[in-house]
Amino acid sequence: MKKYQFQIELQVRDYECDMQGHVNNAVYLNYLEHARHEFLKTMGLNFSDLVRRGISLVIIRNEIDYKRSLVSGDRFMVGVILQKISPLRYCFVQDIYLLPEKKLVLKGRVTGTGVNSKGRPELPAEVSTALDGLG
């Protein structure tokens, strides 16, 4: 397992599963998003607060490699590494592991940017400062 800047443990709920009893592929996006939001909070960036202030952090690309399925009741960990890739873009490298075995379930890369009130790419100073601090 990689060394992550942030980790969160979660458990699969029944309603997240498809007819075959596996977590629906789209639900994994929710797991990744929840982990990103919790990680941002640890950096002093509350996603909901940013939105209320007119700061939109948006996803511009999702890349996901599914390795195995989770089923109802499974405990799992989402690991997060945040990287600044340009003055306007950042990337969350995220992996999901089945616990306690630590078997890889999913590998993901989520690229994002900020958008100002005019719809133009812009990262607010507090976000840029937080990203620069990852160095």
What would you say this structure looks like, in words?
- The protein has 135 residues and is an alpha+beta fold.
- It has one domain: Thiol Ester Dehydrase, Chain A (Roll).
- Helix content is 22%, strand content 38%.
- The chain is built from three helices and five strands; from the N terminus they run βααββββα.
- The protein has helices at residues 27-42, 47-52, 125-132, and strands at residues 6-11, 56-66, 75-84, 89-99, 103-115.
- Strands 1-3-4-5-2 form a five-stranded antiparallel sheet.
- β3 (75-84) and β4 (89-99) form a beta hairpin.
- The chain is elongated, with a radius of gyration of 16 Å.
- The two termini are 21 Å apart.
- The model has no long low-confidence stretch (mean pLDDT 92).
Number of strands: 5
C-alpha-based Rg, rounded: 16 Å
Helical content band: 10-25%
User: In whole angstroms, how far apart are the ends?
Assistant: 21 Å
The number of helical runs is 3
What is the approximate shape?
Answer: elongated
What profile does the largest beta sheet have?
A: 5 strands, antiparallel
On the 0 to 100 scale, the average pLDDT is: 92
Structural class, from secondary structure content? alpha+beta
- By CATH, the superfamily comes out as Hotdog Thioesterase
